[in-house]
Amino acid sequence: MKVVILAGGFGTRLSEATQNIPKPLVEIGERPILWHIMKIYAAAGFDDFVVCCGYKSHVVKQYFVDYFVHNYDVKVHLGDNKIEYLGNASERWTVTLIDTGLETMTGGRIKRIADFVDNSTFCVTYGDGVADIDVRALVDYHKRSGKLATVTAVPSPGRFGILDLDAADNVTRFHEKPDREMGWINGGFFVLEPGVFDYIDGDKTSFEREPLERLARDEQLSAYRHHGFWQPMDTLRDQRELERLWLSGKAPWKIWQ
């Protein structure tokens, strides 16, 4: 199963750190937050990634091209024009890096990678949020729901879009950023069927607006309630808090060995 990561935004609310690098490469504990997200999925056995690049896409591509250089000891055979990487690879990931456009919205980025998910169920998440989520349980829940889409619902204040849920954990309505309203919100970590592409018009479509709202109206959007740790990295304060947790040795999202 493919894991699609939305990594193309400008990261304007974290502009102090994103002038030279895209937001998903902002580091937590000397590793990009994108790496942390991929480790969460890999811990559940999902290691085939499609990264939707946009802002400074070449920097994301270069990070993975140079991954061994940055993370392993290297022996360079100048006479033989050969490079030898020392040690066993700690990651067995396959990473497909797709430039989905500089101004493309989240829905448009998802639609642009339709040809890379093998016409089968796939995961999607944002490139700036971590959680101690059991991805395998999430995928199993989605399959049991029989819906086109499942969103991970997390409790949070109303600065995020609110999910109205019924007793069966179906999303009855999706609405954005209400004032002073508390409830369950979109925590990313989606599981989607290829039929979701039909709900996305094109590059200017924000996935969090028309597609999710229409899926909810069509009773095709279920919610997986996550009661554990979840934290987006929206601001420099968020980045510092995640850094503090990582350096404490007790980062809740570190669910891998």
UniProtKB/TrEMBL annotation:
CDD domains, per database record: G1P_cytidylyltransferase (cd02524)
Q: Name one GO molecular function term.
A: glucose-1-phosphate cytidylyltransferase activity
SUPFAM superfamilies attached here? Nucleotide-diphospho-sugar transferases
The EC number(s) attached to this protein equal: 2.7.7.33
InterPro entries per the UniProt record, alphabetical: G1P_cyt_trans, G1P_cyt_trans-like, NTP_transferase_dom, Nucleotide-diphossugar_trans
EC top class named in words: transferase
Q: Which Pfam families match?
A: NTP_transferase
* Keyword Nucleotidyltransferase set for record: yes
GO terms, biological process:
O antigen biosynthetic process
| Entry keyword set | Nucleotidyltransferase, Transferase
Superkingdom of source: Bacteria
Output the Gene3D superfamilies linked to this UniProt entry: Spore Coat Polysaccharide Biosynthesis Protein SpsA, Chain A
Does Ubl conjugation appear among the keywords?
no
Task: Give every Nucleotidyl transferase domain span.
Answer: 2-218
NCBIfam families with a match to the protein in the record = G1P_cyt_trans
Q: Which PANTHER family match?
A: GLUCOSE-1-PHOSPHATE CYTIDYLYLTRANSFERASE, GLUCOSE-1-PHOSPHATE CYTIDYLYLTRANSFERASE-RELATED
What is the name of this protein? Answer: Glucose-1-phosphate cytidylyltransferase
